């Protein structure tokens, strides 16, 4: 199950890349910018701004799920199933209603990836698996990475590493670069904001380092969670001392994904303002350099 393939990306690894977004994640980070990626199954999104008054095509397609109310559509998401999602796919002429997620075979995905192979070769680019968490789909991830590797295409994975090691290990020979999130080193704080285990992530990072894999550490800086000097010191020190990496990217928090929660009918519980802390970002860069790391700020 994938939910997007983005061609000509320049922000998800070196060179020009094709990013394949896989659905499914074992974390529930409050600030997640792709909440439609969390579920391993399809999701229904509704943008009321695009809904046409008087149109009833969606009600005809799935009357058990869609009702017309005084203030717009009433969607009974708890009643959604595959048959109704199939009926709602492409039924809306304005895309006010859209179904996120589709099943594609390895061959179908690779056909898209291979269209841009000349650009990869000229720019040092390739394929990047993203999500969600790509290793929540370990067989698909391995098949795509192996096929790309055999085609001489550089491979990268954007990962939170919050999966059992056995999900990651089969793909190791075929991954050239891990773009790995290191959100926090405190297990209690990590669990409070993500619902997961920092210990699992840290253990997997150590295993990747022991396997000699190339890792770029990425740190999303979230107000109230880790956007403070103490957290940045702890994260950066772990990266430098325990992983022996050379690159660390700091990603200041933004709210560009906030509207997606509304489209999914879900509450947004992260801060409602983007991080505005130039002194903190300068501290993060300087401290990383003191630890021997190459620090980069990514918007």
TrEMBL record:
Gene3D superfamilies: Aldolase class I (3.20.20.70)
Cofactor(s) needed for function: [4Fe-4S] cluster
InterPro entries: Aldolase_TIM, BssD/PflA/YjjW, Organic_radical-activating, Organic_radical_activase, Radical_activat_CS, rSAM, rSAM_sf
Entry superkingdom: Bacteria
GO MF entries: 4 iron, 4 sulfur cluster binding; lyase activity; metal ion binding; oxidoreductase activity
Record bears the keyword Transcription: no
Keywords assigned: 4Fe-4S, Iron, Iron-sulfur, Lyase, Metal-binding, Oxidoreductase, Pyruvate, S-adenosyl-L-methionine
Domain Radical SAM core: 11-290
NCBIfam families linked to this entry: PFLE_PFLC
Family: Belongs to the organic radical-activating enzymes family.
Official protein name in the record: Pyruvate formate lyase activating enzyme
Organism in which the protein naturally occurs: Kosakonia oryziphila
């Amino acid at each position: 199950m994938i939910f997007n393939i983005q061609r000509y990306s320049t922000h998800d690894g070196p060179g020009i890349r094709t990013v394949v977004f896989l659905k499914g994640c074992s974390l529930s980070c409050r600030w997640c910018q792709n909440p439609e990626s969390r579920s391993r199954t399809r999701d229904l999104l509704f943008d009321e701004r695009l809904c046409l008054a008087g149109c009833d095509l969606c009600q005809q397609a799935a009357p058990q799920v869609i009702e017309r109310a005084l203030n717009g559509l009433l969607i009974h998401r708890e009643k959604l199933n595959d048959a109704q999602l199939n009926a709602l796919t492409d039924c809306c002429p304005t895309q006010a209603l859209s179904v996120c997620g589709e099943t594609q075979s390895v061959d179908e995905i690779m056909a898209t990836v291979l269209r841009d192979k000349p650009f990869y070769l000229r720019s040092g680019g390739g394929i990047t698996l993203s999500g969600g968490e790509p290793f929540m789909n370990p067989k698909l991830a391995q098949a795509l990475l192996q096929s790309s590797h055999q085609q001489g295409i550089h491979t990268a994975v954007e990962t939170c590493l919050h999966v059992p090691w056995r999900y990651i290990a089969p793909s190791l020979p075929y991954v050239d670069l891990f773009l790995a999130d290191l959100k926090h080193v405190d297990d209690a704080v990590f669990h409070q904001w993500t619902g997961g285990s920092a210990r699992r992530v840290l253990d997997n990072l150590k295993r990747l380092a022991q396997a000699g894999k190339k890792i770029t550490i990425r740190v999303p800086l979230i107000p109230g969670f880790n956007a403070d000097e103490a957290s940045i010191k702890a994260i950066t020190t772990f990266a430098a001392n325990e992983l022996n990496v050379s690159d660390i990217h700091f990603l200041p928090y933004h709210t560009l994904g906030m509207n997606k929660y509304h489209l999914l009918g879900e509450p947004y519980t992260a801060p409602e303002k983007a991080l505005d802390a130039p002194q903190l970002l300068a501290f993060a860069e300087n401290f990383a350099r003191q630890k021997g790391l190459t620090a980069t700020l990514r918007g």
